[in-house]
Each structure stands twice: as structure tokens, then as C-alpha cells.
């Protein structure tokens, strides 16, 4: 039996999907894995633009989008890339998700042709970084209550407000900012260096440390009329982008769970106590079996939702199902793997504690477990418990 793919889930991939999986896995293990523990300990990515250029050359930014320098792959291929990225660290998958599934998707779906030509080729190549300004200090699970405002002044727009927990915010070349207007919620492209825009790095994080998280402050930011995304009207526009990013998390969480399981399995077979490997003890084997089930069920869930998405049959509730189930599975696997490692599990020599605390952020952003549970409840009962 293959402990790394017990149910042979990857056997259902086609040749192109396998090639993409292998290319991303090889790149991540060679170029990113040797550095990620140090980045996590430092609480930052020292040179995010260099990392972005490498990932851009690999072709993972906006890889599920068509044209403008994007690869145009299917959804499963994008999911596989997210799985391999998060098997290294959630911060790296988050960088790719925010760039491709949030910022680039917003421009690709809702932007003008001029906006697409200006930003998408550079973002796909990793030459420009983007961020997605939706969440606010007092508006997380209820983005419709955002306080950021955009008002018209002649032909210009003037934006005021604060965005919080913004991945890549302090290093982004363009921010996709969502604001309330007289006509409802609209999206705007705010280039770096625009007067009135400032970004501060959030320090003191105990999770997702190999990632740059920021606060965006917009103080009288004046934008030309052309800065507005012409097709982005209403709360459904940013939520559409969030669903794309959540799809990446469905796969990414499976990758983090797999990495924790593989680390624990290897450790249990090499760590000797009472004269034999701890893998030979019943309690350890019980833990290994529990992790094996969670990892393979997460892989099956991700692949099924990916196939539904490629068939045009995936509903946002399917993605909510995947995020809720797979993040919970990854949390269980990470905690169990940490226990298998004993005291060594709390160090950065092994990946399990890093994944364990990262999953706390992953469980919170892009919709908390509670929000996704209510989404599923609404889907199967027909009753909304949100309001």
C-alpha cells in the first residue's frame, strides 16, 4: 500500500494534471522549502518580489484564468498547485491565492480591457503584486457592513476607510479595494504610491508568519473615474472572488494535512522507545490510522469539487463544504502529528507545529467555520440563519 496516496486519488489525474503537480512540487521543495522555516521564525518573507517572480515563472499566478499571460489550466490543476504550495506553508499558498484568485480574478472578471492589459500580464509573470482590500477591523464575516466609502467628486472618486488583515498589502503594486458608494459596493484599483494610501505591516502574529499581513489606510485617496472596476457592482462581486480563493484552500488544506501525516509517519518509524520504533505501538498506530483517513478523505473531497468546478456544476456551497471539511481535517491531523513527535513537534525542525498554527488562520479567513456551517445549513434547509 502507498502510504502517501493510500486511496490512489492521484491515479484519477490526467497526464497534464500530473505534470503540473510534479512541476509545482519539485519547485516548491527545491526553492521554497529550504527557506520557509526561517521565514516563519522571522515573521516575514524577506524578498517577496523575488519569490513572486519565481512563482510567476512557474506559471501559478492566475493559472486558471484565460489570456493576458495566464496559463488557462483547469480547476483541478490549479487545486493541485495550491496543494503542493500549502504542503510547504500556508503563507505561500496564501500569496498565490491572493494574487491569482482574488486580485487577478477581480480584474479579469470585472475590469475593463484597459485595466486587464495594464495589470494582468505583469501579475501573471510575478512582476507586479496585488492585494485584495475587503476585510475591515469591524467588518469580517459581514463584508456588506464595511465602512470604507467612495464618493464622487466631479469625474473622480475619493476613498476613505481602513482595511485589515490584507495579505501582501504592504508590498502590493496594486490594491483591489472595495467600498460603499451611493449605488452600492464597488471595486477600485489603487496603485501603490497613490497619495493618501498607506500600508502598515501587522506584527506579533503567532500564525501565518511566513506571509506579509497588512493594514491599509485610505485617507482621501483620489482616483480617476477609470480606476473603478466597471462590472463590479454589489457584494456578489467580491464574494465571487472569495469563492475562487476558498477553492484553493480546499486543496491547500489537504496539502498541509498530507505533509503533517508524512512527517509523523517518518518520525514514528525512526523514533525508538522501549526497544522498538514508536510506530509499533498500538496507540501510535491508532493516531496514524486516524491521520491516514483524514488525509485521504480530504484529497477525495478536493478532487470531487475540482471535477464539479471543471464541469461547471460547482456551487459556492460545494466550496464551503470543502473548506469546512478539509480545514477541520487538517487541524486534526496537525494536532495528532504534533503529539506523535512529542517534544520535538514544537520545534521548527519539523513542519507540524508550523502547519498547526497556520491552520488557525486558514480556519478563520475566507469565511470562518461558523459561516461555512451556516452556508451549508441554508443550502440544505432553505432557511438563512445569517440575518
TrEMBL record:
Q: What is its EC number?
A: 1.3.8.6
Q: Which GO terms describe its molecular function?
A: fatty-acyl-CoA binding; flavin adenine dinucleotide binding; glutaryl-CoA dehydrogenase activity
UniProt KW keywords: FAD, Flavoprotein, Oxidoreductase, Transit peptide
Acyl-CoA dehydrogenase/oxidase N-terminal domain: residues covered: 15-127
Acyl-CoA dehydrogenase/oxidase C-terminal domain mapped to chain residues: 233-380
Which family is annotated?
Belongs to the acyl-CoA dehydrogenase family.
Q: Where is the Acyl-CoA oxidase/dehydrogenase middle domain?
A: 131-221
Q: What is the official name of this protein in its record?
A: glutaryl-CoA dehydrogenase (ETF)
Q: Does the keyword Magnesium apply?
A: no
Keyword Flavoprotein in annotation: yes
Q: Which cofactor(s) does the record list? A: FAD
Q: Which pathway is this protein engaged in? A: Amino-acid metabolism; tryptophan metabolism; Amino-acid metabolism; lysine degradation
Q: Quickly give the catalysed reaction.
A: glutaryl-CoA + oxidized [electron-transfer flavoprotein] + 2 H(+) = (2E)-butenoyl-CoA + reduced [electron-transfer flavoprotein] + CO2
User: Which parts form a coiled-coil structure per UniProt?
Assistant: none
Any one biological process term the GO annotation gives: fatty-acyl-CoA biosynthetic process
Spell out the Gene3D superfamilies in the cross-references: Acyl-CoA dehydrogenase/oxidase, N-terminal domain (1.10.540.10), Butyryl-CoA Dehydrogenase, subunit A, domain 2 (2.40.110.10), Butyryl-CoA Dehydrogenase, subunit A, domain 3 (1.20.140.10)
Amino acid at each position: 500500500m502507498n502510504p502517501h496516496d493510500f486511496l490512489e486519488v492521484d491515479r484519477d489525474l490526467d497526464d497534464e494534471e500530473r505534470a503540473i503537480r510534479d512541476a509545482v512540487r519539485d519547485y516548491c521543495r527545491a526553492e521554497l522549502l529550504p527557506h520557509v522555516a526561517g521565514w516563519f521564525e522571522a515573521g516575514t518573507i524577506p524578498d517577496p518580489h523575488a519569490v513572486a517572480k519565481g512563482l510567476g515563472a512557474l506559471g501559478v499566478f492566475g493559472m486558471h484564468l484565460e489570456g493576458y499571460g495566464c496559463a488557462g489550466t483547469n480547476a483541478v490543476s490549479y487545486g493541485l498547485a495550491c496543494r503542493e504550495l500549502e504542503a510547504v506553508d500556508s503563507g505561500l499558498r496564501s500569496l498565490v491565492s491572493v494574487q491569482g484568485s482574488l486580485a487577478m480574478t477581480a480584474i479579469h472578471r470585472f475590469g475593463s480591457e484597459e485595466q486587464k492589459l495594464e495589470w494582468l500580464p505583469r501579475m501573471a509573470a510575478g512582476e507586479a503584486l496585488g492585494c485584495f482590500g475587503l476585510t475591515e477591523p469591524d467588518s469580517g464575516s459581514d463584508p456588506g457592513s464595511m465602512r470604507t466609502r467612495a464618493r464622487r467628486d466631479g469625474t473622480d472618486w475619493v476613498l476613505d476607510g481602513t482595511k485589515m488583515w490584507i495579505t501582501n498589502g504592504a508590498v502590493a503594486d496594486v490594491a483591489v479595494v472595495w467600498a460603499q458608494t451611493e449605488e452600492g459596493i464597488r471595486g477600485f484599483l489603487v496603485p501603490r504610491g497613490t497619495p493618501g494610501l498607506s500600508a502598515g505591516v501587522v506584527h506579533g502574529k503567532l500564525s501565518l508568519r511566513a506571509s506579509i499581513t497588512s493594514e491599509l489606510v485610505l485617507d482621501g485617496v483620489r482616483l480617476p473615474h477609470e480606476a473603478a472596476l466597471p462590472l463590479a457592482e454589489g457584494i456578489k462581486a467580491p464574494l465571487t472572488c472569495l469563492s475562487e480563493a476558498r477553492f484553493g484552500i480546499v486543496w491547500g488544506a489537504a496539502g498541509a494535512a498530507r505533509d503533517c501525516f508524512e512527517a509523523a509517519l517518518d518520525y514514528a518509524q525512526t523514533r525508538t522507545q522501549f526497544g522498538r520504533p514508536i510506530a509499533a505501538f498500538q496507540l501510535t498506530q491508532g493516531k496514524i490510522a486516524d491521520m491516514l483517513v483524514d488525509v485521504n478523505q480530504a484529497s477525495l473531497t478536493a478532487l470531487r469539487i475540482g471535477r464539479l468546478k471543471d464541469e461547471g456544476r460547482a456551487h459556492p456551497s460545494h466550496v464551503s463544504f470543502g473548506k469546512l471539511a478539509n480545514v477541520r481535517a487538517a487541524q486534526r491531523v496537525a494536532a495528532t502529528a504534533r503529539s506523535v513527535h512529542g517534544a520535538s513537534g514544537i520545534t521548527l525542525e519539523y513542519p507540524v507545529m508550523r502547519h498547526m498554527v497556520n491552520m488557525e488562520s486558514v480556519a478563520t479567513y475566507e469565511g470562518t467555520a461558523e459561516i461555512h456551517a451556516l452556508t451549508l445549513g441554508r443550502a440544505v434547509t432553505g432557511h438563512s440563519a445569517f440575518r
